[in-house]
Specification:
Elements: E1 5-9, H1 12-23, E2 29-33, E3 37-41, E4 47-51, E5 66-69, H2 73-85, E6 89-97, E7 103-110, E8 116-123
Parallel strand pairs: 1-4, 5-8
Antiparallel strand pairs: 2-3, 3-4, 6-7, 7-8
């Protein structure tokens, strides 16, 4: 099982503002703050942003992304709206995604450094 993940960011203060707003609809808050990283989570740091001041923007074709579980479609919608309002870029509006086994509702955003973040919930058949 995964305990936590981290993403690199070029500007810690800017990214902290973005993640604080984007993650709030999913029930995640700032848990730990250090000079070069900040941890967000529900009860402990599950997602860390780590300062990499010389980091270039993440190329769109890297294929990597981070997916966070939402409880409802409303949380997915709120995540997407908050992330875009906080300076992120939509990379897939909230909606049902075709999938062969499950009903999958998700939204995708790019953070200020180009990291691809998704919120997802699964719907009953």
């Amino acid at each position: 099982m995964i305990d936590h993940v981290s993403v690199g960011v070029s500007d810690l203060a800017r990214s902290a503002r973005f993640y604080e707003r984007a993650l709030a609809p999913l029930g995640m808050t700032r848990q730990v703050e250090r000079p070069k990283n900040i941890g967000f989570g529900k009860t402990y740091p599950e997602l860390w942003i780590n300062l990499r001041s010389a980091m270039a923007r993440v190329p769109a074709d890297t294929g990597s992304h981070l997916c966070l579980r939402a409880k409802t479609t409303a949380e997915v919608d709120a995540f997407h709206a908050a992330a875009v309002e906080a300076g992120g870029v939509s990379d897939g509006a909230p909606g049902l995604r075709p999938h062969d086994r499950v009903r999958y509702y998700a939204a995708f955003v790019l953070d200020p450094d180009g990291n691809r973040i998704e919120a997802v919930t699964f719907l009953a058949e």
